[in-house]
Design brief:
The structure holds two protein chains of two kinds.
Chain A lengths: L2 H9 L4 E2 H11 L8 H13 L3 E6 L8 E5 L1 H12 L11 H11 L4 H24 L3 H26 L1 H9 L1
Antiparallel strand pairs in A: 1-3, 2-3
Helix pairs in contact in A: 1-4, 2-3, 6-7
Chain B lengths: L4 E10 L2 E11 L4 E5 L6 H8 L7 E6 L2 E2 L5 H11 E4 L11 H11 L4 H14 L15 H13 L5 E5 L7 H18 L2 E5 L3 H4 L4 E6 L2 E3 L1 H4 L1
Parallel strand pairs in B: 3-8, 3-9, 6-7, 7-8
Antiparallel strand pairs in B: 1-2, 1-4, 4-5, 9-10
Classes of the chains: A mainly alpha, B alpha/beta.
Chain lengths: 174, 225
C-alpha cells in the first residue's frame, strides 16, 4: 500500500497534524501493526517537497510537531488519479507454493503431505483473522474479509492442484 | 483427555465404491472441529457414521461409554434425539409446522409440554435473531432465516454434539457467516461440541481445528499423534 497516497486520502477531508494522521491511519488500516511516527513524518516531508501538501498553519506550543498539513490541488489530482487507477492483477504462477510442489514431485517427496500441511497453515491464519473479525468494527471486518478471501483463493488452488497431482507428476517428470 | 465422540478405523462402501477406508477421528467435549476435504473424499459419510445415521461396514463409533455401532436402531435413534443436534444444508425443517413449532419439536419429542417448549423455542429464535418468523411456515422465510431456525432447533435440547453438514452451502456469504457466528457462539455458550462438514475454508475457519479427509481416510492429527 502506498503510504503517501493513503495519507493524502486522510488529509483530503480536512487539514490535520502528523499525530492525527498517524492515529487515523492506525484506526483504519494498521491492524495489529501501528505506523511509526518516523514513517509518517518521512512521508509528509516527501509530499511537501513534491507539492502534494502544504503547511496550513503552525500552532504555538511545546509539542514536537505543531504543523497542520493540508492537501494541495496537485495532491487532490494525484489522489483522484490513484483512486481511479485499477491495481494490476497480480499473477502468482511462479509462487513459492508452486515451486515447492513441483520440487516435491521432482525429488520424490509426497506433494500431498506438503499440500495438507500448507492447508493447515492457511486455515490457522484464517482462524486468527476470523476471530479478529468477530471482535472488530466494520473497517476491521472489511480488511479481514479481504485477507480471508485471498487465503481462501490460495486454498482452492491447493485443492485443485491436489486433484491434478498425478497429471503434474507426469508433466514434470516427462 | 478422553474423547467425547470417537470413530475408529471406519470403513463404508456404497456398492462397489468405497467412501471410507479406515477413517479415524476423535472429538472432545466442547470443541468445534471442521471436517474438510475435496468433493467425494468421504467427509459427509464420516459425519453420518459418527452421528449414527449411517452404519459403517467395519470399525466402531463410540459416544462416551456407549458404542453406537453396537446399538439397535431404536436405541441409536433415542440417543440421537437426546444427545445430538443436526443442521443440514437445506435446513430440513418440517414444512407443515411453523418455525416456532419446528424449534420446539425436540422438546416436544422429549415429553415437554407445549407451552413450556414453545416459550423456550421463542427464546432460542430471539437468540438467533429471527423471532419475527415464529409464526411463519418454513416455505415463507428466506434461506438464511430458515437456517437460523435450524440452528435454534439443533441447540434447544442442549445436545452434547451438533452435527452440521454444509450448514452454509445454500446461503450467500453474509448470511453464511452470520449463521456460523450464531452456531459457534451458541455452541460455545452451551458447551456443545460441533462437528462441521464444509468445503468452504472461510466456514472451516470458525472451527478450533480441522480434520482432512482424503480418499476416505481421515487425517486427524490428534488420533495420529
Amino acid at each position: 500500500m502506498s503510504l503517501p497516497r493513503t495519507l493524502l486520502g486522510l488529509l483530503d477531508p480536512q487539514p490535520a497534524h502528523g499525530y492525527d494522521l498517524k492515529r487515523s491511519y492506525d484506526q483504519h488500516f494498521a491492524g495489529e501493526k501501528p505506523l511509526a511516527y518516523g514513517q509518517v513524518y518521512a512521508a509528509l516531508a516527501r509530499m511537501l517537497s513534491n507539492g502534494l501538501i502544504e503547511v496550513a498553519g503552525v500552532e504555538a506550543g511545546d509539542g514536537p510537531d505543531r504543523k497542520r498539513y493540508a492537501i494541495t490541488d496537485a495532491g487532490v489530482t494525484e489522489l483522484r488519479s490513484w483512486l481511479a487507477t485499477p491495481e494490476p492483477p497480480a499473477a502468482y504462477l511462479q509462487s513459492t507454493l508452486y515451486t515447492k510442489i513441483v520440487l516435491a514431485v521432482l525429488t520424490g517427496s509426497d506433494p500431498q503431505e506438503l499440500l495438507d500441511s500448507q492447508r493447515s497453515a492457511h486455515l490457522a491464519e484464517m482462524r486468527v483473522l476470523t476471530r479478529r473479525k468477530q471482535g472488530g468494527d466494520l473497517a476491521t471486518q472489511l480488511v479481514c474479509d479481504h485477507a480471508l478471501l485471498h487465503l481462501e483463493a490460495d486454498l482452492r488452488w491447493l485443492e485443485l492442484t491436489a486433484a491434478r497431482i498425478d497429471d503434474l507428476r507426469q508433466a514434470v517428470t516427462r | 483427555m478422553s474423547a467425547l465422540l470417537e470413530g475408529d478405523r471406519l470403513d463404508k462402501s456404497f456398492g462397489p465404491t468405497p467412501a471410507l477406508r479406515g477413517a479415524s477421528i476423535a472429538v472432545e467435549a466442547g470443541e468445534v472441529v471442521a471436517i474438510v476435504g475435496a468433493s467425494g473424499s468421504g467427509k459427509s459419510t464420516l459425519l453420518h457414521c459418527l452421528a449414527g445415521i449411517v452404519r459403517p461396514d467395519a470399525g466402531t463409533v463410540r459416544y462416551g461409554d456407549a458404542e453406537l455401532t453396537a446399538m439397535a436402531d431404536g436405541e441409536r435413534s433415542r440417543l440421537r434425539r437426546s444427545e445430538f443436534g443436526f443442521v443440514f444444508q437445506f435446513g430440513h425443517l418440517v414444512p407443515e409446522l411453523t418455525c416456532l413449532e419446528n424449534v420446539a419439536l425436540p422438546l416436544r419429542l422429549a415429553g415437554i409440554r407445549r407451552r413450556e417448549a414453545e416459550q423456550r423455542a421463542l427464546e432460542w429464535l430471539a437468540r438467533v435473531e429471527v423471532e419475527q418468523v415464529a409464526r411463519s411456515l418454513p416455505g415463507e422465510v428466506s434461506g438464511g432465516q430458515a437456517q437460523r431456525v435450524a440452528v435454534a432447533r439443533a441447540l434447544i435440547g442442549g445436545p452434547s454434539v451438533v452435527f452440521a453438514d454444509e450448514p452454509t452451502g445454500a446461503l450467500d456469504s453474509l448470511n453464511g457467516e452470520r449463521v456460523m457466528q450464531l452456531l459457534t457462539a451458541a455452541a460455545r455458550e452451551t458447551g456443545a461440541a460441533v462437528l462441521l462438514v464444509t468445503h468452504e475454508a472461510r466456514v472451516a475457519a470458525y472451527s478450533d481445528r480441522e480434520v482432512t479427509v482424503r480418499d476416505g481416510v481421515a487425517r486427524d492429527l490428534r488420533v495420529l499423534a
